[in-house]
Amino acid sequence: MDYKASENIQDLQYFGEFGGVNPSISDSSTYTFLSAKTMFDTFEGNTEGCYLYSRHSSPSNLYLGEALAQLEGTESANVYASGMGAISAVIMQLCNANEHIVCSRTIYGGTYAFLKNFLKKFNISTSFVDITNLETVEMSITSNTKMIYCEAVSNPLLEVADITSLSKLAKKYGIPLVVDNTFSPLNINAAKLGADIVVHSLTKFINGSSDCVAGAVCASTEFCLSLKDVNDGAGMLLGSTLDSLRAASILKNMRTLHIRIKKHSENAHYLASAFKNDGLKVVYPGLDNHPGHKIMKNQMNPEYGFGGLMTLDVGSLENANALMELMQKEKLGYLAVSLGFYKTLFSAPGTSTSSEIPMEEQEELGLSHGLIRFSIGLDNDIHKTYLTMRSCMEKLNILPKTILLA
Ligand SMILES: *Cc1c(COP(=O)(O)O)cnc(C)c1O
């Protein structure tokens, strides 16, 4: 893997109008024209570098889009007001009524609800499959299928998609592979591995400060422009436009993404290894007992590690709730959904971010009641964090007996 995403992001230089080291923020929804002809041409999409109206595009949004295109190594990228704004625009752009989608069965709850419930309005159906089983994926493709959709590292079960193989399969059937790379920016370059369209919730690691929601679509210039088309672009017409002020603040945060991702990964790996040694049921793609470990190793950028997410199964929802409340009291982090914050965030996905998935289906997926999802923070002394977490578990009798004897 020799694509240097973070160097390319660092090298993108934009200056403010007075020579500021950050670009000026475009504080306008509309733009003036000296000639009526240029306005018409801009409306038709024929005028490079001219702005018309900020739902279509704005300088700040374009700057952020360029940085995101560098992150994934795609020709272009559009930004949106949320991850769901990006995801729903992509799906609506690619699918007409009565068509079909093949999708991983372990995905973000909002995406699941959009595909399963919302798209019923258009009679668009989705086959939810085990994305790690390529035969099942292939068998689910019909002549009506318009895309394969998955997450590079899935929410919340941390399944790893074999993007190279899925991309070959998608090409064989002439359909795009859409990958949500929210859990693994920089860790995995989904587009370089063959994904045609990469979506992100910028709300999470990429912005990293839990102060706003935003999303992105990284793809070919042709596809990005089609989303912005004034006549039939889903991005343009569904209207989930990111505000320029937010685009500017996210771009500034992106400048430190490489440092943050390395630290999130280092800390998560440390805790996952330690808890595995303690005999706890921990899931982390960096552990060699993880079913996707080999695939992750093959497709990751090693310097960024295996990511900042891990899960721990503590047996029951009662245990999970008690442990999360105690950890919050001990200042280990916050009982909160979302991820990518400097503090560790933990939640029980079955009753929160994946509650859109019916209970029976959750069980089938292996999404057990005692599962806690952790987005590990940027703690400076992770060994101390480990000892405090362990003492919380000890107090609640959650540690396996063998550890207590040791
Ligand atoms: C949070 C999340 C989303 C949705 O993003 P929003 O910014 O909340 O709309 C989509 N996919 C994944 C994997 C997520 O974690």
TrEMBL record:
Pfam families to which the protein is assigned, alphabetical: Cys_Met_Meta_PP (PF01053)
One GO CC annotation: cytoplasm
Cofactor field: pyridoxal 5'-phosphate
Keyword check for Lyase: yes
Stored SUPFAM superfamilies: PLP-dependent transferases (SSF53383)
Protein name (Swiss-Prot/TrEMBL): Cystathionine beta-lyase
UniProt record, GO biological process: transsulfuration
InterPro entries: Cys/Met-Metab_PyrdxlP-dep_enz, PyrdxlP-dep_Trfase, PyrdxlP-dep_Trfase_major, PyrdxlP-dep_Trfase_small
The entry's keywords: Lyase, Pyridoxal phosphate
Family statement: Belongs to the trans-sulfuration enzymes family.
GO molecular function, one term: pyridoxal phosphate binding
Keyword Lyase: yes
Source organism per UniProt: Flagellimonas eckloniae
Post-translational modification N6-(pyridoxal phosphate)lysine, affected residues: 204
